[in-house]
Design brief:
It contains ten helices and eleven strands. It is an alpha/beta fold. It folds into two domains: 94 residues, no CATH class; 198 residues, Rossmann fold. A seven-stranded mixed β-sheet has the order 7-6-5-8-9-11-10, sandwiched between helices. A two-stranded antiparallel ribbon has the order 1-2. The chain has a two-stranded antiparallel ribbon with strand order 3-4. α1 packs antiparallel against α4 and α1 packs across α7. The longest helix is centred in the middle third of the chain and has 14 residues. The protein is globular. 42% of the residues are buried.
Length: 311
């Protein structure tokens, strides 16, 4: 992924919003299927260019937008085979830039159906946020969707978007400004390593699949992809102030009836929390992943939601 020019990308986002652009990002398998339909080989409008990531000709874009894309560093190809290196997705009234489809690069910036589930679960949890957090961190913030949701729900809070991926941090900063979100700071950090001090709220939607290539945007590490999630729980509890909350959305690869991820964190939650809850939001996500290496014994991948309050 090439470096972004933030000011030009912000102008591009403003232009898309003024044009009434909207796009809901789907799963990779759905994206591939829709793009494979006859007639969808080339882009015909802005949604095809910036949502469906289809190749396009200059004539598809409004005057001046091609130069704006080039200035922003999000244009590749040439002639009649141009492509945008970013997608723009809508999440309610938010417009968020992230990586174009398909995502292959190690520093790709994720956004997808998991993002919508994550944000929805957070919003429901915010109804019981008492007192409101004054300092929060989104661990592995990616496009910034989680951090910006926190910042809008709690405008008095200092919200940190932490990520090891500098391309993600650039997009998160642009997305914050594009959506008029204040109180947000992007921080280069491997989990909590670059974040100083304690916090009242930790939210996270980390990578959780087993990726043989170890790409950071999707590889959750060992333990069938649950290593990062476990570390966020363990290291996060140490950073929470008394009464602070941890909200984690992740996926767990399951074989049989035992949940190895929950088993690995249960004792810590019991010892350090006044209360916690754990539920499956969806029993079967990323079914196509089960045909990949590392999933030979896995029956399903479940989307799970953990809420914990520090003692």
């Amino acid at each position: 992924m090439t470096p972004f020019q933030a000011n030009a990308l912000l102008t591009l986002g403003t232009t898309l919003r003024q044009a009434g652009y909207r796009f809901m990002t789907v799963t990779p398998s759905t994206h591939r299927r829709i793009n494979g339909r006859p007639g969808n080989e080339k882009a015909r409008d802005l949604r095809d260019v910036f949502g469906w990531s289809r190749p396009f000709t200059p004539a598809v874009l409004p005057p001046g937008m091609l130069d704006l894309m080039a200035s922003a560093g999000v244009l590749e190809g040439g002639g009649d085979e141009l492509r945008s290196t970013v997608r723009a997705s809508t999440l309610d009234d938010l417009l968020l830039f992230h990586s174009a489809f398909p995502t292959h690069a190690d520093n790709a910036v994720f956004f997808g159906p998991d993002t919508y589930r994550f944000v929805g679960a957070m919003r429901r949890a915010f109804a019981s946020a008492d007192p409101a957090p004054m300092r929060a961190v989104d661990v592995g913030c990616g496009s910034g969707s989680g951090a910006l949701t926190v910042a809008r729900a709690f405008p008095a809070a200092d919200v940190i978007g932490a990520d090891v991926n500098t391309a993600a941090l650039t997009l998160a900063r642009v997305n914050a400004e594009l959506n008029g979100v204040t109180g947000f700071t992007a921080c280069e950090s491997d989990l909590f390593a670059g974040v100083a001090g304690d916090v009242d709220l930790i939210v996270s939607n980390p990578p959780f699949v087993v990726d043989p290539d170890g790409r950071r945007y999707r590889h959750g590490g060992g333990e069938r992809g649950a290593e990062l999630s476990r570390r966020i729980v363990e290291e996060g509890l140490a950073r929470l102030r008394p009464g602070g909350r941890l909200l984690l959305y992740t996926g767990v690869a399951l074989s049989g009836i035992d949940d190895h991820f929950l088993d690995s964190i249960r004792a810590r939650l019991d010892a350090e929390c006044t209360s916690w809850s754990y539920e499956e939001l969806d029993p079967d996500i990323f079914g196509g992943q089960l045909g990949e290496a590392g999933y030979e014994e896995v029956e399903r991948i479940a989307a799970v939601w953990l809420q914990a309050r520090k003692r």
